Amino acid sequence: MLSKRVISCFDVRDGKLVKSVKFVNTKEIGEVVGRARQYYEDGLDELVMYDITASSDRRDIMLETVEAVAAEIFIPFSVGGGIRSVKDATDLRWAGAEKINVNTAAVERPELISEISHAVGAQSTILSIDVLRVGGARQPSGFEIVTHGGRTHTGIDAIEWAKRGERLGAGELVVNSIDADGTKDGYDIELTRKVADTVGVPVIASGGAGKPEHLYEALTAGGADAALIASMVHYGEYTVTELKQYLHDRGVKMRMHY
Fold first, then answer.
1. What is the mean pLDDT of the chain?
2. Catalytic site positions
């Protein structure tokens, strides 16, 4: 059985680490590069960095920030925000990103997933999906895809989009519940499980982690392969080592860092 992963998410705006609740009330909380190095040294399995306004501002991602982070960490590094072409993806790879994370642009032009997958490999092509609960009357699954940082409803059923993303060549899915984002009330286990039961590629649970039990729920009941965390570590409430030790002690297979 493969080890489960703990992944930290860095939302970045203007080169600074920021955090929001349900994608609004975004506040600057620190510096990016030093924090990335700190988490890496504490045993983080993977880092995901999103340039959160690149898509809404219609601009390119900040390659200098990617290069600076990549020089400090030696774990898988996934980057998203403003990626609209194979050139964008390859520029990020040259800057040090191991994985390319697409979201809004893939919804607008789904063939982008296949193009990037063919260029850099499915294992390095990550589809992020931002999801809102909308009820079964609006979408069969009760979950809808939204884009542009949660500001645009797409009319696309989240489970159907997850399946299509896998078919198009995504090698991993980040399932982000906007309803849970930043609340610290726990992941949307129903959403995560529905996606995990539907696709055959790894699923990363995202949005809502507030205590170690939430990670355990996502990695067991939720069927996730990895749990993405932000507020828990950004605000100094837990360390990566503490979280991984908690999971290890409860029988979850982890890569331990001693």
1. 91
2. 11, 130
